[in-house]
Amino acid sequence: MKMQDQFLVPDYYQKFECKGGACRHSCCEGYQVNVTMKEYFDLKALECTEPLRRHLDDALCLHGYPDENKYAHLSHAWDGRCRMHGQDGLCELHGECGADALPSVCRYYPRSPLTKYRPECSCANACEGVLEELFRHQDKISFEHQELEFDLAGDRTCSQTDTAIRIYAAVRHLMFLELQDRRVPVGRRIELARHDLEKLPQGHVYDAEFQKRAEWLCDRAAMVELTSEQNTTMQELFMLPAGTLFMLLREFGKMYDSIEKYAEKAQEFEDTAGIMDQLQLQQAWEQAAGRFPEISLYMEQMMVNHVFYTGFPFTDERADWGEHGLVLTVTYELLKVLIAVCLDEQADMTTFTDLCADYFRMTEFTGFAHNVLVLLNHQSDDRPDGNDRNDLYTAG
Would you say the C-alpha torsion 257, 259, 261, 266 has a positive or negative sign? Predict the structure, then answer.
């Protein structure tokens, strides 16, 4: 469906430009690109050169249970690259037939419109070009309306009540207020956001009482930021046990190719350290962070963009608000662990950016959030049995 509307976008949105063949983490590698039924038959009927036709026919693969919006996908070559990904790093389909010939996923990535509650659009942290733009951005991310047009699969019309939309706006605003409160370290901001999520009414009944509580939390957060002094001595500490974080990395390293090499380094660090404790991990983080004087800014910008991009915390109504907060904490602290154990004294902004892009490829395009809760539940002795929430998602 074609959609033209005033979308809420982050202030960097217009500045983003695809790096094309200069990109180190091409979106043409690793991702499964789904195509609609219309796109499938358009590509089958596309007039093009014989080499491109051969690549298209080899790539187009029907899903086992296709529907109109998810009819087929573009299969990869043996090396994980899209079959249309040329040696110059550019798309052969785009180069020969133009942008209109591309499936919508390829045409819009890393942009991703959200329309369930209100029109929003931002760019994925999994794109190195987005991260580089974020790292140049010194100010707090602000948001503005911009007229955008998309041709999207399925019906993307907002069907929420006015109260639900106001609650969505209030809770999202609360997250951005707290994540950009530069009086305290980023990790502390994450914990404050988590604690405030736990204060929301349980369940997903978006009524007047829920709206009142969400707006009160927003007003309080804004007032605290205005009236409190900056604490420059507060230390950036890990909130979760080191053993839990390394357990999660071991499991995710087995599941997701994008972080496999980093998880192996984390395992080496753990093996060398012996019994892992908070002090060893804290020292490793402080050494790594010391190599990047503006790391607090980088972490803030990535987390704010991640929250906006994913629609957090309105991402999975099966999870309660406290669980959403826990996933946010895990998302932040696992990234800290990887920075701490994978970036040595030779690390520069390129290796830092590469690590972060690979990490967010996992968190933003797989069942990461669900699997965090499953793995932590399995670690607990009191997990319920017979609940599908305990099944891992092994695919993206």
Answer: negative
Q: What is the dihedral of CA 338, 339, 341, 343, to 10 degrees?
A: 130
What residues have CB less than 8 Å from 237, skipping those under 6 apart?
185, 187, 278, 282
Residue count of the chain? 396
Phi, psi (deg, nearest 5) at residue 149: -130, 135
Scanning the structure block, which residue is given the tokens 């990047």?
A: 292
Specify whether the CB–CB gap between 180 and 303 falls below 8 A: no
Q: Residue type at 26?
A: S
Locate tokens 């590509």: which residue? Answer: 43
Q: What is the pLDDT of residues 81-122, one digit of tens each?
A: 889 988 888 899 999 999 999 999 999 999 999 999 999 999
Chain centroid offset of residue 140 CA:
19
3-class secondary-structure state, position 240:
coil
- Cα 337 from Cα 334, distance rounded (Å): 5
Listed residue (95, 96, 75) closest to 28, CA to CA: 75
What lies within 8 Å, CB to CB, of 293 at 6+ separation is none
Q: What is the pTM of this model?
A: 0.92
Q: CA of 354: how far to CAs of 81, 102, 336, 347, in Å?
A: 18, 26, 14, 11
